[in-house]
Specification:
With 278 residues, the chain is an alpha+beta fold. It folds into 2 domains: 136 residues, Hotdog Thioesterase (Thiol Ester Dehydrase, Chain A), CATH 3.10.129; 114 residues, Hotdog Thioesterase (Thiol Ester Dehydrase, Chain A, Roll), CATH 3.10.129. It has 6 helices and 10 strands; from the N terminus they run E-H-H-H-E-E-E-E-E-H-H-H-E-E-E-E. The chain is globular, with a radius of gyration of 18 Å.
């Protein structure tokens, strides 16, 4: 059995990661921020201190996860199923973290195995928790081992029009910028590799779509203040192509915000979104 259900609870070796002002600026541009978001895209604008987009947690964190302990699998058949971030403090423009990870859960979905990987990151300058990443990976063809299916989602959107809709246009070269923040998977840059994966051309990183969506939530629901951004989660449902338009639909439920991201053809590309704020 390639995937080991008994790996739940196992921990990996802590990993350190540092970043600087330029890394934060590059990430912001990579997820579409521009001239009307100078707090995130410049470091020397008058009366505008540099701040960091909260979704940068996905490229800084995630370390220390024991991928090597969950069993053997074909990486080409692994999908990024879902992503959640929880912010405990505002991410500084430069710093260093230490991340510790564990296998949170392994579920048998029949057609594949669903694995929750949790990584907690501590700001080494303060000694305090900075953020947590929870990634759900889906391993196609690795199910059927007799494990539990896991809890069913009770997510349901309100029966009304969205309270807010924000539209962003991605660039045709968006993935080429985003990949410089760390994810160099050729699926997002090499036409030949993308065709082997069944795509006509390279697709946009799912976490780039996540970043676009997070920007809309930050500016609309938090008045552009990263200190108010507390958590964001959801499931990747369809690939996005560079050059697509993204529409982020938000339903304000008071204690939380429910959201979806759709493309220009009204296809949901990021689903079951839940956001919380101060």
């Amino acid at each position: 059995m390639p995937i080991h259900p008994e790996a739940v609870g196992l921990r990996g070796e802590p990993k350190r990661r540092s970043w600087n002002s330029k890394d934060a600026l590059l990430y912001a541009i990579g997820v579409g921020a521009g001239c009307d978001e100078l707090a995130f895209t410049t470091e020397n604008t008058q009366d505008t201190p540099q701040r960091v987009l909260p979704t940068m947690a996905v490229v800084l964190g995630g370390g220390g996860v024991p991928f090597d302990k969950i069993g053997s699998f074909n990486p080409a058949l692994m999908l990024h199923g879902a992503q959640k971030i929880e912010l405990f403090d505002e991410i500084p423009a430069e710093g260093e973290i230490e991340s510790s990870g564990e296998v949170g859960a392994i579920w048998d979905k029949g057609s594949g195995a669903s694995v929750d990987l949790i990584s907690d990151s501590v700001n080494l300058a303060t000694g305090k928790p900075l953020f947590r990443n929870t990634m759900t990976a889906f391993f196609r063809g690795e199910g059927g081992f007799g494990g539990e299916r896991g809890p069913a989602s009770d997510f349901k959107l309100p029966d009304r029009e969205a309270d807010h809709v924000v539209r962003y246009q991605t660039r045709i070269d968006q993935a080429l910028t985003y990949r410089l923040s760390g994810d160099r998977n050729p699926l997002h840059s090499d036409p030949a590799f993308a065709k082997m994966g069944g795509f006509e051309r390279p697709i946009l990183h799912g976490l780039c779509t996540y970043g676009f969506t997070g920007r809309a939530l930050l500016h609309t629901m938090c008045d552009s203040d990263p200190a108010r951004f507390k958590s964001m989660e959801g499931r990747f449902s369809k690939p996005v192509m560079p050059g697509d338009e993204l529409a982020i639909l938000m339903w304000d439920e008071g204690d939380r915000v429910l959201f979806q991201t759709k493309n220009q053809d009204d296809v949901v590309v990021f689903d079951q979104g839940i956001f919380t704020r101060d």
